[in-house]
Write a structure and sequence with these properties.
heterodimer, A: about 350 residues, mainly alpha, MetI-like fold, two-stranded antiparallel sheet, 4 strands, B: about 300 residues, 2 strands, globular, MetI-like_sf (chain A)
Chain lengths: ~350, ~300
C-alpha cells in the first residue's frame, strides 16, 4: 500500500476514520438525558429558550428541543458516512459488473449509451436523483412503507451514476486489454476469468480506488443537495403541534423530524429556522464540507502517489540510457550532411 | 463542415431522446395512474384519510411507452400544454416564461462572468514570478474542492455580515416580493466555475508554454505579454471550449443551490416542485435548460471549425 504512506491520503483517511469511530464510541458511552427547552443561569434566571445560542455548555447551540447540537451532529455522523460507504461500494461493485456487460455488447450500443449519458451534464445530478426519489419520499409518500422508501432511495442513489461509471471502467479495461502481455496471456491459454483477476485487476485497482474515493465525495455532495431539496434520506417522522394563536384560536402545524439525525436530515429539519438560528443549518453543512475536503485530500494523495511512482520509473529508465549528443551541438561533419 | 453539422444534429437528437427517456422513468417503476388519481382526490378534498393507501413498486413498460408518447405530444404542442397542480390543470407556458428567463440570465451571465474573470486572472497569473505562482496555484486548488452549497451560503453570510457591521447593504440578498436580486446571485454562481476555468487554463497554459514555438518566439525577442496574448491564449482557447460542458454543469449545480438559498423561484425549483407529478413538465424544463447550452456549443464548434479547418 503505497497510498498509506502518502501524507495527503493518510490525512484525509484519518479524518474520516476519526469521525466515524468517534461517532460510534459516542453513542456507546452516551447517557440518556432529558433535554430542557429553557436554559437557566446559576441563580435560576431564565437566560435562553431553545434553540439556544452557542455558549460554553452548548458549543454549537441546541436544536428546538434543547438537545446539544454538537452531540446530535456526532450522533448523525455514523449514519451519514455509513450511507455514503454503502452507496459507494454498491456503485463500484455494480459498475464493474456493468463494465463487463458493456464489453460484451456491440460497440454501437456503447456509443449510443455514452451519448445518452450526456444528459447528466444538462441538469444537476441531484435533480435527476430527486425526480426518482421524490415520488416515494415526498409527493406520494402516503402510499409507501418505510422499507420501500429506503430501498428505493438507496437503489436510485446507487444506480444514478452507474451508466457513466460502467462506461469509464469499460474504457479502462479495453485499453488494458490491448497491452501485449494480456494478448500473450490469451495465446498461452489463459481463460477470461483468470486473465481478469491475474492481469487486469492489479493494473485496474489503483484506478478503481481513485474512482471509489471520487464517488464517495460525489455521493456526499448529492446527499447535501437532496437535503436542500427537502429529502430526508435517513427516515423521518411527522409531529403535529397545536398552539394557541392570536385571540385564543388554535393553530395546528406539522413539523418533520429526522429519525437518525443524519446530517442531510438535520439540514431539512432546521431549514425553516435558518434565518432565526443560522448555526442549525450551517453546522451540518460544515460537517459535509469537512468530509468532502477529507475525501478530496485522499483523491489528491492517490494522484500524487501515482505520479511519483510514474516519475520513479521514468528516472530509472533515463539512468540506463546513455546520454546522446543533442543534434544542435553535433558538428555538421559528424552529422553527415556533407557526406552526400 | 457537413460532418460537423451531422454530428451536432445527432448530439441534439440523442440528448433530447435521453431527457425524454429519463424523465419518463418514474412512470416505469411507480403506479402513476393510481397515485395521481389519489392525489387528485386528496387535493380536491374528496378524500381526507390517506393512511389506508398502500402501493408498491411496479414494473410497467406499457405505461412507460405511453408516457414517452405523451411527453412528445406535449412537447410539440407546447402552447396548449398544461400541468397538474393541487387539483387543477394549469397552462404551463405563462409560468414557464416567468421562471425561465431569470434562471437563464443567471446561467449565461454566470458563464460569461466566469470566463471573463477566469481568463483575465490567468493572464495576470502568467505574468507573476514563479514563487508567487506556486502559492496561488495551491490556494486555487484548495478552494476549488469546496462544495457549492458551502460557497453560496458563505457569500450570503458574508453580505449579511457586512450589512450588520457597516449598515451597508451591497446587494439585495434574497428575493422578497418584487425587488429582485441580480448581481450577487450571478456573482455567487460564477465563483466555482471561475476557479475551474482558472485551474484548467493554468495547467494548459503552463504545458503550452514549454513548447518549442514559445521558446522560439522568446528567442526572437518578442515580449512575454505579446506571446501570452497572441499565441498562448489563442492556442488554449479551443481546449477551454472543450471544457464548456463541465463549466456548464458546475454552473447548473450552483444554480440549484442558489435558487434555494437565495429564495429565487427559478427553473430548477420549478422542476423540483412540479416535475414529479408531471413527468412531461420535467422533460420540457430540462430541454429548456439544455437548449441555450446547445446553441452556445453549436455556435462555438462551428466558429472553431471555420477559423481552424483542421
Amino acid at each position: 500500500m503505497k497510498y498509506i504512506k502518502q501524507p495527503y491520503f493518510l490525512c484525509g483517511f484519518l479524518i474520516l476514520l476519526a469521525i466515524l469511530i468517534g461517532s460510534f464510541i459516542f453513542s456507546a458511552i452516551k447517557e440518556p438525558s432529558t433535554p430542557s427547552q429553557i436554559l437557566y443561569d446559576d441563580s435560576g434566571n431564565i437566560i435562553d429558550k431553545a434553540p439556544f445560542k452557542p455558549n460554553d455548555k452548548y458549543p454549537l447551540g441546541s436544536d428546538q428541543d434543547g438537545n446539544n447540537y454538537l452531540h446530535v451532529l456526532v450522533e448523525g455522523a455514523k449514519y451519514t458516512l455509513g450511507l455514503v460507504i454503502l452507496v459507494t461500494l454498491g456503485r463500484m461493485l455494480l459498475s464493474v459488473i456493468g463494465a463487463f456487460i458493456l464489453l460484451a455488447v456491440p460497440d454501437f450500443f456503447k456509443k449510443v449509451l455514452s451519448h445518452l449519458c450526456n444528459i447528466f451534464y444538462f441538469a444537476p445530478l441531484s435533480i435527476f436523483a430527486y425526480l426518482l426519489i421524490a415520488p416515494v419520499l415526498i409527493v406520494f409518500s402516503w402510499s409507501y412503507s418505510d422499507l420501500t422508501q429506503f430501498t428505493v432511495t438507496m437503489i436510485v442513489l446507487i444506480c444514478l451514476t452507474l451508466p457513466i461509471l460502467s462506461l469509464q471502467i469499460a474504457n479502462e479495461i479495453s485499453i488494458l486489454a490491448k497491452e501485449e502481455y494480456i494478448q500473450n496471456a490469451h495465446l498461452l491459454g489463459g481463460g477470461m476469468v483468470h486473465i481478469f483477476f491475474r492481469h487486469i485487476l492489479p493494473c485496474l485497482s489503483p484506478k478503481l480506488l481513485l474512482l471509489t474515493v471520487q464517488q464517495a465525495g460525489q455521493t456526499l455532495s448529492i446527499i447535501a443537495h437532496l437535503a436542500f431539496l427537502k429529502i430526508f434520506i435517513g427516515g423521518f417522522h411527522e409531529i403535529t403541534y397545536t398552539a394557541t394563536g392570536p385571540s385564543n384560536s388554535e393553530i395546528t402545524y406539522m413539523r418533520t423530524f429526522s429519525d437518525s439525525h443524519e446530517w442531510g436530515g438535520l439540514i431539512v429539519q432546521n431549514w425553516p429556522a435558518y434565518y432565526a438560528a443560522p448555526v442549525l443549518v450551517i453546522a451540518p453543512v460544515c460537517c459535509f464540507v469537512i468530509c468532502i475536503i477529507a475525501i478530496n485530500l485522499m483523491v489528491s494523495g492517490i494522484e500524487r502517489a501515482d505520479q511519483n511512482s510514474y516519475k520513479k520509473i521514468k528516472r530509472t529508465k533515463t539512468l540506463i540510457v546513455p546520454e546522446a549528443k543533442t543534434p544542435s551541438f553535433v558538428p555538421l561533419k559528424d552529422r553527415g550532411v556533407n557526406a552526400s | 463542415m457537413m460532418r460537423l453539422l451531422w454530428k451536432l444534429v445527432l448530439f441534439l437528437l440523442l440528448s433530447l431522446t435521453g431527457i425524454i427517456l429519463f424523465t419518463a422513468l418514474p412512470v416505469l417503476i411507480f403506479d402513476y395512474s393510481i397515485l395521481m388519481n389519489n392525489t387528485r382526490l386528496i387535493d380536491t378534498g374528496q378524500m381526507t384519510n390517506n393512511s389506508f393507501l398502500v402501493n408498491s413498486i411496479v414494473f410497467q413498460p406499457l405505461a412507460y411507452w405511453d408516457q414517452i408518447k405523451t411527453t412528445v405530444i406535449q412537447l410539440i404542442d407546447i402552447t396548449n400544454t398544461t400541468f397538474y397542480n393541487s387539483g387543477i390543470n394549469k397552462p404551463l407556458l405563462p409560468i414557464l416564461m416567468e421562471v425561465y428567463p431569470q434562471s437563464i440570465t443567471f446561467l449565461i451571465g454566470g458563464l460569461f462572468l466566469s470566463l471573463f474573470f477566469g481568463i483575465s486572472f490567468t493572464l495576470l497569473y502568467m505574468i507573476f514570478p514563479i514563487f508567487v505562482r506556486n502559492f496561488i496555484k495551491k490556494c486555487i486548488l484548495a478552494i476549488e474542492t469546496l462544495p457549492d452549497v458551502f460557497v453560496i451560503l458563505l457569500v450570503q453570510l458574508a453580505v449579511i455580515w457586512v450589512y450588520k457591521n457597516t449598515g451597508l447593504l451591497m446587494f439585495n440578498i434574497v428575493n422578497v416580493y418584487k425587488t429582485k436580486a441580480y448581481f450577487l446571485p450571478t456573482l455567487a454562481i460564477s465563483i466555482l466555475p471561475t476557479l475551474y476555468v482558472i485551474k484548467y487554463l493554468i495547467l494548459t497554459m503552463e504545458e503550452e508554454s514549454t513548447k518549442i514555438y514559445v521558446e522560439f518566439a522568446k528567442g526572437k525577442g518578442l515580449k512575454n505579454i505579446y506571446i501570452l496574448l497572441a499565441y498562448l491564449l489563442k492556442n488554449t482557447a479551443a481546449q477551454l471550449f472543450g471544457q464548456l460542458k463541465n463549466i456548464f454543469w458546475i454552473l447548473l449545480s450552483n444554480l440549484l443551490m442558489l435558487e434555494i438559498i437565495f429564495n429565487i423561484y427559478g427553473i430548477t425549483r420549478f422542476v423540483a416542485d412540479y416535475g414529479v407529478e408531471n413527468p412531461h413538465l420535467a422533460a420540457i424544463c430540462l430541454i429548456a435548460i439544455f437548449l441555450p447550452f446547445f446553441v452556445l456549443f453549436a455556435a462555438g464548434s462551428l466558429l472553431i471549425k471555420r477559423l481552424d479547418p483542421r
